[in-house]
């Protein structure tokens, strides 16, 4: 079923009143909205472009520019914060102007230009500045893009729509490094060629967005509100949106006790005594699991509820921690299990969180609302990283993971109990 | 007739045309880069001459290094007599990104073939034939053999890959050729800092240099944004911090001094290092006369001269400087890196 833009807007606008439920065709597989496929394609192509650069950047800095990577690593912290801020800004601007496609497109275009700018950047500071701009572009586009996905399909299909989008996105992320290494294989030391090819992919993404993605008009009847007060006003509206503060809180609480990927891979390699040569393959395993499970788990979330799936995802993460703590030695099988569980965790939480948040939000505040949820989760995870690093220092790797496991179990149990009591 | 760009056919047409243009740009860029890469296999006038020949670790009085001059011998391990280092170089058909050798043992860090780049450490015998190969989890950066030829060490940057983000860490391994023991990660050693056991998630080690006796060694430890000189004990698996702001130590042949790079204030953030010498007995530091930033693990050419690589026209050149703080830097091998002295 092709969902027209008007129809999507109607559905999205009926957040507070009960939306007209489309007939639930049992056994009939309905197509995902064309807009979601278009946005998914844009993300796929853009992720090929982005991951091409990320994959060769260490090689480029060391072999191409003769830079010591640790010197570059020191710059990393500089632009880590850029994404969180620009994401909030992107959401806010998109909502204020009600131009989601334009803001998302600006973000995509900015990142595309950065690929060309890399050709000229030859010092660590210049590379750092280009990467910061690239991440600003990524931050800008995320919330308006998720708002477009959310607005493009009815409430009961949000999980599937985000699942399809995230799966396409991850497919691009898996393809990117392969394309990059194929270019380097054809042209030895041809980093400039990698950047040009990456730019071409990014430009194609911008073009696909411009041609095939439709923005939905959700302009509310204009109220004479002073521009200055609008920001504060929309924040107040968001704070009063039923269910949203609680969702932010849940995402943040669980985010604090989520161990960051790089720590997990390090623990995985050490505790299971994996050969270090497999180290770069660990994230690929997770991404593959995410790719395969994103759509089925998104559909499941639509059927049985997004919050149960979101919580179950963290339950799966808890299983991964417990597996890591277990007395396994030299376990390739255990490693595969942990990676599949991690992939399942992301599949059950990443798109599902957006699918849970989308229907709560009024259409004209969709982008800023989604940005708020994502940012609270991201900041909580960042804080969790710092805590975990400190725990590692005082308790050692095993102790830190035990603490994180206990924390996750406690938070998960209390959130689940609270959730059951509230009937939300 | 004005074209209607809002119709689905028009949009597909625009997409098709733009895709063709973008694909053409991508292909041209790749082909041009491939052509340029091919040029590197042709020798260039004015560059040092390298001829294929026999290189062994038993010929005394020679300097071995990775040849960087363009031509068919590029990246091959090459040899020059220590007396006349400007002459034609002899190149063995053995290519390495990083190389070191001593007393008949060689270590070569190189890229493995294939589309996805991988790296390996290859232990070499005196005729540069592979003895054993170890897969390594990242980009080679440092390699060292102990003076007796018994121990080898190497460091790689574990950049993870695209999915892991921009953080880098190092992995340093030590292999004992006599017992066949591989310590694949110094991070499993006990670190003692200021008399206390020190644990942190961000321990990174690199740049091993061995003392005589094949047990004691020195290396760099980075943690909490600072770097330290650590003294390692292989048998007891311990590392003790000695001094702050020391990177890439290199022990002198008599074992009394350590050459290292030190971060100095006022320098550019991406090139902050100056070469220094530390007297291990007195703790006195001497700045060397090289004023440029050196991002290399220096090598003792003899008891009073250091060798180190600086970026050059074809990757890097090897320079020398007196170890007493006097004199002036002198380029002694153009287009070369990763030196080893066969004394």
Mean pLDDT of chain A: 82
Poorly predicted ranges of chain B: 160-166
The major pleated sheet of chain B works out as: 6 strands, mixed
Whole-number tally of structural domains of chain B: 2
Compressed to H and E, one letter per element, the order of chain B equals: HEEEEEEEEEEEEEEEEEEEEEEEEEEE
Proportion of residues in extended strands of chain A: under 5%
**Average predicted confidence as pLDDT of chain B:** 90
Overall shape of chain A: globular
Radius of gyration of chain B: 23 Å
State the share of residues found in helices of chain B, binned by percent: under 10%
> Sheet with the most strands of chain A?
none
Compute the number of helices of chain A: 14
Largest inter-chain contact set: A-B, 71 and 58 residues
- SSE order of chain A, as H and E? HHHHHHHHHHHHHH
- The Rg value of chain A, from CA coordinates, equals 22 Å
> Termini distance of chain B?
84 Å
Per CATH, the class of the largest domain in chain B reads: Mainly Beta
Extended strand count of chain B: 27
Strand-residue fraction of chain B? over 45%
Quick overview:
The complex is a heterodimer of chains A (424) and B (343). With 424 residues, chain A is mostly helical. Chain A has helices at 5-13, 34-64, 69-97, 100-120, 124-151, 158-186, 191-212, 227-240, 244-256, 261-271, 282-304, 306-325, 332-357, 366-422.
Give structural notes.
The complex is a heterodimer of chains A (424) and B (343). Chain A contains 14 helices and no strands. Chain A has helices at residues 5-13, 34-64, 69-97, 100-120, 124-151, 158-186, 191-212, 227-240, 244-256, 261-271, 282-304, 306-325, 332-357, 366-422. Chain B is built from one helix and 27 strands. In chain B, the strands form six sheets. In chain B, strands 14-13-18-17-16-15 form a six-stranded mixed sheet, with no helix packed on it. In chain B, strand 7 (118-124) and strand 8 form a beta hairpin. Chain B: It holds the Pfam family PD40. Chain B: InterPro entries: 6-blade_b-propeller_TolB-like, WD40. Chain B: This is TolB-like translocation protein.
